Amino acid sequence: MPTIMLSKSRYLNGLQCPQLLWIATNEPDRIPSPDPALQHIFDQGHLVGELAKKLFPGGIDLPTDNFMDNIKLTKELLQKRKPLFEAGILSGEIYSRVDILNPVNKDEWDIIEVKSSTSMKDVNLHDVSFQKLCLENSGLKIRKCFRQERRH
Fold first, then answer.
1. Which of 70, 136, 147, 71 is nearest to 109 (CA)?
2. CB 97: neighbour CB atoms within 10 A?
3. Tens digits of residue pLDDT in 1-24
4. 3-state secondary structure labels for all residues of the chain
5. Which pTM was predicted?
6. How far apart are CA 49 and CA 148, in angstroms?
7. From CA 12, how far away is CA 35, in angstroms rounded?
8. Could you report the per-residue pLDDT of 43-62, keeping only the tens digit for each?
9. pLDDT tens digits, residue range 95-132?
10. Judging by beta carbons within 10 Å of its beta carbon (0-12, 13-18, 19+), is residue 36 exposed, middle or buried?
11. Largest CB tally within 10 Å, which of 70, 75, 87, 112?
């Protein structure tokens, strides 16, 4: 049986609904496309993410269309010690992408999770905790984790 990578999305799906995790892993075609209202929420989240990037001039926006290219480019760009947007880290069998990975001090990083919401939810804590675990397992030193939000 092939090994299945545990991504942040799968982990969060499993926390919210174990059956959703199973379906997303084994029968992903059963998951419906987002309806217009949900798509609007996703689109608003992307706009907030773009606005948050402006707070980190000189940051590097990594392409996300190719999973392995994103991981490879992230490894290369970590050496530049600049803010990275959508940095992808694969550590063993776990994978996460970080909204903003910001260098601090000589060898540490801050994780900044960007949300468009009206309140903090438990799932947000699990989200950033998974990211921190993945990055630390890959050898990065994480100083702090932040949640950047735009309330509407």
1. 136
2. 21
3. 556 788 998 998 899 999 999 998
4. CCCCCEEHHHHHHHHHCHHHHHHHHHCHHHCCCCCHHHHHHHHHHHHHHHHHHCCCCCCEECCCCCHHHHHHHHHHHHHHCCCEEEEEEEECCEEEEEEEEEEECCCEEEEEEEECCCCCCHHHHHHHHHHHHHHHHCCCEEEEEEEEECCC
5. 0.86
6. 9
7. 20
8. 788 888 888 888 999 999 99
9. 999 999 999 999 999 999 887 777 677 787 889 999 99
10. exposed
11. 87
Do the beta carbons of residue 148 and residue 45 sit within 8 Å?
Answer: no
CA geometry: angle at 152 spanning 61 and 123, to 5°?
70
Distance CA 101, CA 52 (A): 12
| Per-residue tokens: 44 | 């608003």
Bridge partners (DSSP) of residue 114 are 148
